[in-house]
Amino acid sequence: MVETTTMMERPYYSWWFDSHNSPRRSPWLQSTLTELEKRTKAVLRLIEEDADSFAQRAEMYYKKRPELITMVEEFYRAHRSLAEKYDKLKSDPSSRLSTPLLSPMSSFKYRQEKLVSFEDDIYSEAHDSDVSEESEIDDPEREDEPQVDEQMDEVSSRDFAAETMRLKVEIERLREENRVQEQQLMQKDEEKREASRQLRLAANVSSGVFEAETMKLKEEIEKLKEENKVQRQQLMQKDEEKREASRQLSLAVEVSNGVFEAEMMKLKEEIERLKEENKVQKQLQKDEENRGASRELSLAVEVSSRVVEAEMMKLKEEIEGLKEENRVQQQQLMQKDEEKREAIRQLSLAVGVLKEENMNLKKRISITKESSKKWNPANEFNKFKGIFFGKLFNGFPKSQTGVELARYE
């Protein structure tokens, strides 16, 4: 079970070495390589962790960045110290490294320095016999120095050379990995700055265009409201004029009816008077014995009857004329009422079309900026407004109005 867990935690890289767990090595070297492996795995975990979204990756990046920089700094300081020690050993092969007593879990920097010093001494022993006789490494655990010397004597020169080369390859790999990581970090920082700049630029541009379009639409809406207000006032004024004309016509009809009734009353009174006179004349005719006087009276009655009939015919003609005039006025009133209803209907329809056109303009503007550049709602609205106001007070032909409205719908 422990071996399975170790295999699962082991990173899969071609440059990874697992041969440092050798019983021939000193405890200090084992602990140093273990600490190096632990630090390397920690760096790899920070690099390989990923997130589902861009925001999560950015958050992880800014959280891990200080820790990763600290680890890179430790690697840098350790490698710099190793290089200085290596150069010192090459220039002074007889020098010995004396270190204080340290535990296996001491600082990473000191272990790296000891590791490079140890590998440099081994490399010198394998390739230069003179240097090998003079180079020595002191183990931090001073009480184990005889045991370390015995282990060093048991290892062959070939094993030392192979181990030294492996360690050098590992160090070079780590340096290359650090350099790649630094380049990736710099590239990611640049990409983040560029993305942030582009986002701010796009947000500023979009905000400016949206505010301009919004102000333009607000101005158009205010203009439409003002025009609708003027149209309502004009309609109210026309309605008032039509009501006044209807009131005058009704008054004229009432006056005509009053005059007609007065004339009829006068005619009735005249007829009653004539009937009374006729009755008196008949009575006188009966009383009179003279036929000549009776004929004259009859002639007078006949003349009076003809005069009355002529007056009646004249009055009837006047009555018919008044009736005809009243009928014509009523037809004119009905026609004006129909025109008023038609104008109101056309105005309501036009207002509905204007509202729908305003809604369409808002939708088109919110869909895409390209469509707003190709299609100018102000030109279409001005064109429709010109047609509407041109036809509003001159009358709307039904066929032409339907075609115009259908075209704008």
From TrEMBL:
Residue ranges of every copy of the NAB domain listed in the record = 13-93
Biased composition, class Basic and acidic residues, residue ranges: 237-246, 276-294
Keyword Coiled coil applies: yes
Instruction: State if DNA damage is listed as a keyword.
Output: no
Q: Name one GO molecular function term.
A: actin binding
Q: Where is this region: Disordered?
A: 126-159, 227-248, 276-295
Record's protein name: Protein Networked (NET), actin-binding (NAB) domain
Where are stretches of biased composition, namely Acidic residues?
131-153
Which Pfam families does this UniProt record tie to the protein? KIP1 (PF07765)
Q: Name one GO cellular component term.
A: vacuolar membrane
Q: Which UniProt keywords apply?
A: Coiled coil
Its taxonomic path starts at: Eukaryota, Viridiplantae, Streptophyta, Embryophyta, Tracheophyta
Q: Please state which protein family the record places this protein in.
A: Belongs to the NET family.
